[in-house]
Amino acid sequence: MKSISLNAHAKINLSLDVIRKRQDGYHDVRMIMQSIDLHDEVVVETRDTGIEVECDKPWVPGGKDNIAYKAANLMMERYKIESGVGIKIYKRIPVAAGLAGGSADAAAVIKGMNELFSLNLNEAELMNIGKQVGADVPFCIKGGTMLSEGIGEKLTKIPSFQGVDIVLVKPKVGVSTAWVYNNLKLDKISSRPDTDLLIKAISEKDIGCLAQNMGNVLETVTIEKYEVINDIKNELLRLGALGSMMSGSGPSVFGIFENGKKACLAYESLKDGEWECFMTQTI
Ligand code: ATP
């Protein structure tokens, strides 16, 4: 039996704009995606037959309902893999949190199976498979700092925003991405992020400019239902964050800090609250 272990990294959005609703029901977006150090561990191993998916957290579905299964199944069919595969997920990324935890696991399975079965697929081929599993999976395969357009699958590399200190807070509610998009009223959006300005700030390593101009149009929907998100944003600012924002469709909120010491002080003050709290960095 051969086995391989991979880190499946979460993402945050440094900006999120929704451009239009398409005829197929999806939305065209323009967003800056950023990988962070917070990760699940995904172990992929050969088995005699079938696909088995297990997670160490009981609230995450195992078997066919796990997105990792869908990724493995697609790889088995596409590349006519005759033996089986076992997948074990050690979950650390909060679930239904706007951090693309499921997509990160699926990306790790695609990369892991490529190595385990010596398929020798290049990154473009892996991303193409990923696209069929979910809109955020290609980004999770690539990682880093990217402008993401289309339904999330059109990726353009922007300069790295690595090593920035982040405090991440996940209130005790789960949010369905589909629910947020279904309740988004595009004609009611009054303020949109200036994505080009943010890309410039990232290129110039101007953390202050980035932090003060970040914007996520989905906040309107999620914050209307969960006021706690606004409370956390304000709390992060009070504790010294240069800027704070909801990630993806929420409910996770992150604060960007000037340095690790300031992030650590904020983390210490938030870590025992009614939420999950992490100190992490952009990678
Ligand atoms: P996104 O921002 O891409 O929508 P998210 O972080 O908001 O992702 P996930 O953590 O990926 O959401 O979970 C969304 C749903 O998918 C959950 O309700 C969960 O039950 C289901 N799910 C299936 N497989 C996984 C997995 N491997 N990890 C987490 N959730 C999973």
UniProtKB/TrEMBL annotation:
Residue positions of the active site: 11, 136
Top-level taxon in the UniProt lineage: Bacteria
Species of origin: Acetivibrio straminisolvens JCM 21531
UniProt entry keywords in alphabetical sequence: ATP-binding, Isoprene biosynthesis, Kinase, Nucleotide-binding, Transferase
Residue intervals of the GHMP kinase N-terminal domain: 66-144
Domain GHMP kinase C-terminal stretches: 198-270
Stated role: Catalyzes the phosphorylation of the position 2 hydroxy group of 4-diphosphocytidyl-2C-methyl-D-erythritol.
Coiled coil feature spans: none
Protein name per Swiss-Prot or TrEMBL: 4-diphosphocytidyl-2-C-methyl-D-erythritol kinase
GO biological process: one example: terpenoid biosynthetic process
Signal keyword on record: no
